[in-house]
TrEMBL record:
The keyword DNA damage does not apply. Residues 18-104 form the Glycosyltransferase 2-like domain. The chain crosses the membrane at residues 235-256. It comes from Skermanella stibiiresistens SB22. The keyword Zinc does not apply. One of its GO terms (molecular function) is transferase activity. PANTHER family: GLYCOSYLTRANSFERASE, GLYCOSYLTRANSFERASE 2-LIKE DOMAIN-CONTAINING PROTEIN. This is Colanic acid biosynthesis glycosyl transferase.
Length: 274
């Protein structure tokens, strides 16, 4: 179901951003995402919502949003990555940002700042193809802590920032899709392929999105490690031994985070400011 299209203040006839939100039985989370988008001073975006057939009144809520939503559907699908593919297929904006239910932008000026970064990063050779930023992680107690982004050149190690802070130029990822054979790691595979097509990449200097660390990858950590190994072998041709060593380092990192959080935080700060 498509509502009237969002205007495009940057003057190209289409919105600069397509913000794609997937949701399943999380009406309250969707409302939080909606409030974040309504507060944005930059209106150069369309909002696309893909509901996997929720039973909690989500579809009725989306219907009540009216013209705030450029396109939406509510129907059973094959999971979040299938929903993200459906959202991409409906997108009209120049850049894609996946902001799922209960994810929010850091401030009312986040999109305005991001738009400025994209416009400033354009060169005579063309616009930026891929932008990524840090995120803020929301704890169970409601506090926020920064999750700095690693360099995209370390994509061999894993996702260098959270998916909510990656912005893909739609023309660059045209023809790509999230591979549903990866239960948890399809976003990692998609990002590797997108980077392989991106000539101009930029890292933003401030956090873009706020998220709660309870997503699919957080709940299925072991499956995610196996997915990542398959992806490294398929897309990066990394040796099996090297893939094994990466898993060991990641496992040790998680152990330090659980048992010695102070040491973990010191290392995170060093990564951000060092």
């Amino acid at each position: 179901m498509r509502a009237p299209a969002t205007s495009a203040p940057h003057g190209r006839g289409i919105p600069l951003f397509s913000i794609i939100t997937v949701v399943l039985n999380d009406r309250d989370g969707l409302e939080a995402t909606r409030r974040s988008l309504l507060r944005q001073t930059c209106r150069d975006f369309e909002w696309i919502i893909v509901d996997g057939g929720s039973a909690d009144g989500t579809a009725a809520a989306i219907r009540s949003f009216g013209d705030e939503v450029a396109w939406w559907r509510s129907a059973a699908d094959r999971g979040p990555y299938d929903a993200m593919n459906n959202g991409m297929a409906a997108a009209k904006g120049e850049y894609l940002l996946f902001l799922n239910a209960d994810d929010t932008l850091v401030s009312c000026g986040s999109l305005a700042w991001l738009k400025g970064e994209i416009l400033a990063g354009a060169t005579p050779d063309g616009p930026l193809d891929f932008v990524y930023c840090a995120t803020l992680e929301r704890s169970a107690g409601g506090g926020l802590r920064i999750k700095p982004a690693r360099s995209h050149r370390m994509v061999w190690y894993g996702m260098f920032t959270h998916h909510q802070a990656m912005i893909y130029r739609r023309a660059v990822v045209a023809g790509l899709a999230y591979d549903l054979s990866f239960t948890v790691g399809a976003d990692y595979a998609f990002t590797i392929e997108a980077l392989g097509r991106s000539a101009r990449v930029a890292r933003g200097k401030q956090p873009l999105a706020v998220f709660a660390p309870a997503g699919l990858s957080g709940r299925l950590d072991r499956v995610g490690r196996l997915d990542q190994t398959r992806i490294r072998r398929k897309f990066l041709s990394l040796p099996v031994v090297f893939c094994f060593l990466i898993i060991q380092v990641q496992s040790m990192t998680m152990l330090v985070r659980r048992r010695w959080p102070v040491i973990y935080e010191i290392c995170r700060c060093w990564r951000m400011y060092g």
